[in-house]
Structure formats: structure tokens, C-alpha cells
Amino acid sequence: MEYEERIKRGYDICNQLGRHTSEHQRELYPELHALTIGHLFGDIWSRPHLSLREREMITLATNIALARPVGNHSHYRSAMKLGISKEQIMELIIQVGHYAGWPTIALAARQFAEVLKEDAEQDKGPSSYR
User: Fold this and answer.
1) Do residue 57 and residue 45 come from a single domain?
2) Are residues 21 and 68 located together in one domain of the fold?
3) Fewer CB atoms inside 10 A, N or C side of the chain?
């Protein structure tokens, strides 16, 4: 029963973030998918004391600081879905970049611009995240 509860919590969190689960993980290795949904989202993202909004900002800041080449696009979208504005995301990028190094600003800004452009092209502009 605990496993099912963790998975349910994980899917609930993913839905609030506007994320689709990683079906490629399920196809490649179901245990990885279960860890992602059950542990990462069901256990970690559902912990008390921090809101989803705060967790998303921390995750974005970490990924930006580490200059992650992939994964940030979905976090930018989740951030906007949670009500984090374009201006707040840009300020986060600027703040992190001054501690993590200027190239992180360039990469993060490019990735965020790609998200905004893709969403605008799909008629899902930032206003749909409010």
C-alpha cells in the first residue's frame, strides 16, 4: 500500500507542476520511472515546510548553477504554471549567474527564451500559466 500511496502523491505533484510523466523512463526501465514518480515527486517534492513554488525555484536555481544542458525547459514551464512570472525567472537567472558564473546566465537565458518561443508558437503563451 505504501508504494501505491507514494506513486499517487508523485502523480499528484506532477499534475500540479503541469508535467507529463517520463514515459521513456517507463519503457526503458520501469524501476527508474517508479523512483522518479514515487521517490523524487512522491517523497521529496511532497515534503512539508516548502511550497511547490519554492521547490521549483530552488530546482531552477540549482539547474541553472550547474549549467544543465537538458531538463530546464520543463522546469521553466512548471515555474510559470505555478505563477512564477517571467520577470521573477529572469531575476533568478541573474542572481544565480552572479554566483555561478556569467556563462550560466547565457545558457539559462537561451533555454528560457526557447521555452517562451515554443509556447508562443503553440498558442500557449505565458498568460496560460497564470
Assistant:
1) no
2) no
3) N
Write out pLDDT tens, residues 56-96: 999 999 999 999 888 899 999 999 999 999 999 999 999 99
Same domain assignment for residues 16 and 58: no
User: Is 81 in the same domain as 129?
Assistant: yes
Flag whether pLDDT at 125 surpasses 60. no
Residues 33-50 have a mean pLDDT of 95
Range of the domain at 119: 51-130
Q: How many domains does the chain have?
A: 2
Q: What are phi and psi of 106, to 5 degrees?
A: -60, -45
Confidence class for position 21, pLDDT limits 50, 70, 90: low
Same-domain check for residues 44 and 71: no
Residues 67, 103: contact at Cβ < 8 Å? yes
